[in-house]
Amino acid sequence: MIDLDNKKQQKRIKLGILANEFFDVSKGRIGGFGWATRQTANYFNNHPELGVEVVFLAGETYGNPNEADPIIHNTPLILRQKNKLAYTQRIWQEKIDLILSIDYRPNYRSLFWLLPFTPIIIWVRDPRPPEDMSKIETVRIPAEENIQPQGLKTPDCTSLFGVIKASKLLNRQVLFATVTPFLKEKIAGTYGFKPDNVTILPNIIDLEPKEIIKSEKPTVIFLARLDPYKRPWLFVEIARHFPDVEFIFLGQGHFQGEGAWLPTNLPDNVKLMGHIDGEEKTQIIASSWILINTSIHEGLAVSFQEALRCETPLLSCVNPENVVSEFGIYVGRYDGSGMEGLPKFVAGLKTLLEDHELRIKLGKEGRKWVTETHNQAKFKEAFFNLCKQAKLNL
After folding, report:
1. Is residue 209 one of the residues assigned to a domain?
2. What is the DSSP letter of 127?
3. Which pLDDT tens digit goes with each residue over 62-116?
4. Which of 7, 140, 182, 326 is deepest in the core (most CB within 10 A)?
5. Helix and strand tally (H, E) in the chain?
6. Residues 291, 250 contacting (CB under 8 angstroms)
7. How far apart are CA 214 and CA 221, in angstroms?
8. Are residues 45 and 101 in the same domain?
9. Which long-range contacts (CB under 8 A, 24 or more apart) does 369-373 make?
10. Residue 28's pLDDT is what?
């Protein structure tokens, strides 16, 4: 039993966090799914009184025979093994009580079957029903219209319905949670199943800027991977219209070769900083005036929440949960290369740069929203509610 009020740890929950990325450059791409694994692990590792012991479960990355589990974010990562018997024994050895599945991908199924009675929480973060898949696949890099960009294909996730049907026969609980209400309507089209209940399990936004002092020179940031899906070339083209403003790319590309975007022929006011994390990242966001997002699609982008936590308003062509229109400027939807939206981006940025009072107001209101809705306390409450629904012996 776990006494949360008195913080007496009598029984631990072994939580297996399943994902294809873990926010570590040595183990694949850096993205929102990996960020969620890190935040969850850090929270429970830093609060042992809650009685949750975390282990990472790799959905796609394979290790070598007899290789020790790598430790990422102070958490062991169990890599997959080609020796199925050895891998099965390794998974069973952990005695996992609960699986937190970071969204769902078809390669998760084999691990679900290795633990057929272990309850699962599907943490829906970026569901993509067919209409969203079609929109994403319109992306083209300017001057490369005949080349299919890398990273646009979304796996068919409807096989989750088979997992759910089999789990009912086994009396295994499969629960759904998502970070924000508007994503609920995308679940049925994405996974082939409409759950009766979806719990809001918020992000843990724990950036703590020591002080928020905006840069003397106007500075705007792009916080995402430099992949075609995010259409970073739009950020560059916007920069050409504002030579006296500094534009900073925070992120790196995941792809190489044909169909990847390469940052070449950049104007002098564009700076590439690659992947930045920790206090340096927080300081850059807190000193920036505006965050620009040019992606063709987003769930609830973590970058939006991190920017608003630092009182940095938003300019974007996506508007999940109306966050951008509330705490910034939404320029409208533009498919394909997105270049048709360039005039609206330029006009929106001009407004935010010139209207100091509006910029400050949007930033402060955004910080209040993030602080009140996506915090450790609300995550903790929702997580343990899900544990009760999963019929764990708390």
Report:
1. no
2. -
3. 888 888 889 999 999 999 999 999 999 999 999 999 999 999 999 999 999 999 9
4. 140
5. 13, 16
6. no
7. 13
8. yes
9. 369/308, 369/323, 369/326, 369/327, 370/205, 370/305, 370/308, 370/309, 371/205, 371/309, 373/202
10. 66
Compute the distance between CA of residue 52 and CA of residue 169 in angstroms, rounded to an integer: 28
> How many C-beta neighbours within 10 Å does residue 268 have?
8
| Residue 341 structural domain | 219-373
- How many residues does the structure list for the chain? 394
Amino acid identity, position 6:
N
Could you please report the per-residue DSSP string of 140-187?
--TT-TTSPPTT------TTHHHHHHHHHHHT--EEEEESSGGGGGGH
- How many Cα atoms are found within 13 Å in the side-chain-facing hemisphere of 394? 18
- Confidence (pLDDT) at 208: 87
Contacts of 104 (CB under 8 A, 6+ apart): 122, 124, 157, 160, 191
Nearest to 224 by CA among 306, 152, 156: 306
Angstrom distance (rounded) from CA 92 to CA 337: 47
Q: Which two tokens stand for residue 51?
A: 């009685």
**pLDDT one-digit tens code per residue, 208-219:** 888 899 999 999
**CA atoms within 13 A of residue 29's CA, in its CB half-sphere:** 15
pTM: 0.92
**CA 169 to chain CA mean position, Å:** 32
The whole-number average pLDDT for the span 331-360 is 97
Burial of 380 (0-12, 13-18, 19+ CB in 10 A): middle
Digit-coded pLDDT (tens) for 132-157: 999 999 999 998 888 999 999 999 99
Q: Count of domains in the chain?
A: 2
Which segments of the chain does DSSP mark as H helices, in order? 32-46, 84-94, 109-114, 130-136, 160-170, 187-191, 232-240, 278-287, 302-309, 323-326, 342-354, 356-373, 376-389
Burial class (CB in 10 A: 0-12, 13-18, 19+), 217: exposed
Q: Are 128 and 225 contained in the same domain? A: no
Cα three-residue angle 148-58-170, rounded to 5 degrees: 110
